[in-house]
Amino acid sequence: LINDLVNLAIAEKDHATNSFLQWFVSEQVEEESSANAVLGKVKLVGKSGDGLLMTDRELAQRVFTPPATGKGGEK
Predict the structure, then answer these.
(1) Alpha-carbon span 33 to 6, nearest angstrom
(2) What string of H, E and C letters represents the secondary structure of 6-34?
(3) Domain residue limits, the chain
(4) For 58, phi and psi rounded to 5 degrees?
């Protein structure tokens, strides 16, 4: 979906919108990378109960970092 929006902004030569959307593109790439890393760990441990428990504990230790706000304080 985000790629469709970027493609539309480019087609319309709407450079401001394209620039605005780049943050969302970067965020999407980062989230997909994170999800693939978790999936890789789960595939690695397979059906090992101990491995799944360790992976679960590791994931529970993650700290949520809220997105940065813009100049005016908006998100």
Answers:
(1) 20
(2) HHHHHHCCCHHHHHHHHHHHHHHHHHHHH
(3) 2-60
(4) -60, -45
67: Cβ contacts below 8 Å, ≥ 6 apart? 27, 75
Token pair listed for 46: 């397979």
What is the model's pTM?
0.65
Q: What is the dihedral of CA 36, 40, 46, 47, to 10 degrees?
A: -40
- For the stretch 10-62, pLDDT in tens is 999 999 999 999 999 999 999 999 999 999 999 999 988 999 999 999 999 98
Q: Cβ distance 2 to 24 under 8 Å?
A: yes
Q: Helix or strand or coil: residue 1?
A: coil
Cβ 52 vs Cβ 44: under 8 Å: no
